[in-house]
Design goal:
single chain, mainly alpha
Length: 121
Amino acid sequence: MGYLYIFVGGALGALIRYMLSFLPLWHGLPIGTFLANMFGAFFMGFLSTYSLRFLETHTYLKKGITTGCLGALTTFSTFQFEVFTFISINAWFTGFLYLTLSSLLGIVCCILGLKLGDDVS
């Protein structure tokens, strides 16, 4: 039964990720991948705390949301490829900026999600 939840969550996450891919570049940065990873980091933090109380009896639903939806939504491999692409065209500053912003803001988003999830629950 858990596989079905992960499958449906994964389909939803992949669809959201696909829709974000249509966002235009922002100052040369791939904003769709960036937003997908920031949303994923925030909601992983939020759900990790929030689900401790409200989803503990619905483990399949939690796996469907975290492993399925957020796993398909976030795009670490795409992120790595985009950083490599910047480096390969000698856009070192843009690549470093994208790498730094994504990494640091991803951690901040996760922390905010954890704190908000703890406050809500």
